[in-house]
Amino acid sequence: MLENQKIKPAHVIGPLGEPLTMRDLPPTDTKRWVIRRKAEVVAAVVGGLLTTDEACERYSICLEEFVSWQRAIERSGMPALRVTHLQDYRESYHPHEK
Fold first, then answer.
1. Which of 13, 19, 65, 76 suits a disulfide with 61, CB 3.0-4.6 Å?
2. Which of 3.90.550.10, 2.40.50.100, 1.10.10.10, 1.10.10.60 would CATH assign to domain 33-98?
3. Is residue 9 within 8 Å of residue 48, measured between CB atoms?
4. Averaged over 44-50, what is the pLDDT?
5. Which pairs count as long-range contacts for 43-47, CB under 8 Å and 24+ apart, including other chains?
6. By the 8 A CB rule, do 27 and 40 touch?
7. 43/20 Cα distance (integer angstroms)
8. pLDDT digits (tens, 9 = 90+) for 66-97
């Protein structure tokens, strides 16, 4: 039975290089998504602390929103998570879309 369960790490490395545990993640009722909070959720998923499905359910976000955070970080780092710069980053990678 235990071999069928995935073992999750006790902590992962957060976006600023600090240990990140389940207790350190943003509250489940988060309404204001600042850069750091988005990056913490992405780091938790990438590190195996949460699955993508768990993150989406926990924070009531859709898969597309989470994936957009993840792609923004992969392409341009944490500054790409700024809502005010979202259009700039989209145009950089998809200049034909408007």
1. 65
2. 1.10.10.10
3. yes
4. 96
5. 43/12, 43/13, 43/14, 43/15, 44/12, 44/20, 45/70, 46/12, 46/70, 47/9, 47/12, 47/13, 47/20
6. no
7. 8
8. 999 999 999 999 999 886 555 555 555 555 54
